[in-house]
Amino acid sequence: MFARSFVHQSSRQVSRHGSWVCNPHRAARGSLLLRTYASSANAPLAEKFAVNGDRLWEDIHYTAQWSAPSPGGLTRLCATEHDKHARDWFRDQVLALGADYKVNATGTQFAVFPGEDSSIAPIAMGSHLDSVATGGKFDGPLGVIGGLEVIRSMKEQGVKTRAPLVLINWTNEEGARFFPLLGSSIVYAGQSTVAEAHASLSNDHSGITMGSELAKIGYVGDGPNTFQEFPISAHFEIHVEQSTDLEKAGKPVGWVEGWQGMTWYSLELTGEDGHANTYKMYGRRDALQGAAKIITAVEALAYKHNGDSTVTNIISGPWGACNIQSNTKVSFCLMHKEAEGQLAMGSDIEKQIKGIAALHGLELKLKRDIYVPPGDFWPEAIDCVKRACGDKGIGSRTGTGHDSTMTTTLVPTAMVFVRAKDGISHSAKEWSDKDDCTEGALALGKAVLNFDELMKTKK
Ligand SMILES: [Zn+2]
Description:
binds zinc ion, elongated, nine-stranded mixed β-sheet, Alpha-Beta Plaits, Aminopeptidase, 13 helices, alpha/beta, 2 domains, five-stranded mixed β-sheet
């Protein structure tokens, strides 16, 4: 499918154009951009800014009705009818607020709100309304609905930024239904194409694609697909922490400084068909037995290298009670805080997989689908979030990828973490308290206002 590695933060430039289709004039970052972020104070507009926590909380729970049966949680897979309901709701909300609204070819929704100077590329707030299977109500929706709350509150309070703002609902960030993940932001960042995203196959191996399913729900639009077509000045995202650093520190929010390395692999083992009862053990070419050893090796690898690993998908055939398994596909991911450790895990497991396949006489197709080295968000964007959090926050790091992991390759990007009970995520037990969600949305709004102020210092 996709064999790529991306070098993050390769084009750290701020665009100065804000129209839907234009050639970005990438002004090099000047030292002026650094001028204000030594201060711990918030921008004047940020000091007075407030959000409506009741409204945010109600919307998080109201929109959770659009889900496959998922007691207490959320199963809103990308491009399903449930996803369509959530998207339609989002569209209606932003249109009611006067947004210039577009949907692009990968289904991502953009809602642009004017600032005082329409020649500046908008400051973005974004995350995803679609979810994993058997997920929680917060992973994704909090980022989009938190951004919506910021826009609503700004309107009510007459807060006008100089830069336009854009609220984004990115498509298929989780890769829960279609692989690969970051399904739309990866195209926006120029790491993939619309055609590749449309061809993304569903993880249930039914052969359906993201493109066909998006078309079915009416979400293949003509809006901008790439940064070149629609540049932004910065990207800010609220997300549940998915870890326990904030909880341990007794803080509701955090500024996210960076992420750990992540590598996704997929492999296919092909052996030989045969009768499950009558074939002698010696000489079998059983793909599932090879896969079983590989799965065990992937787990042991994490302990050996002091990293983490997860086997995320397996499919084997032929189906039946009397067949030796002749074809098995496995997907897994490897995580490590250090780039060297991440690479060492990769080369170690590749060697082991080849050895296991050879031992069982299996043909092997092995792909490193996505390689994300560990990295840091942009200091000036982190600082905007840090000042927004004030003494209610601490610095933290994320263990996974987000749409911000893609936008950070283009423009100043940072994230706001919200305390998550016991660090649980991708589970119906995922929970963040109402007050913590409110603090998160407030920090998001203040961070955006801080960044807007920071850009004013640029000539
Ligand atoms: Zn997420």
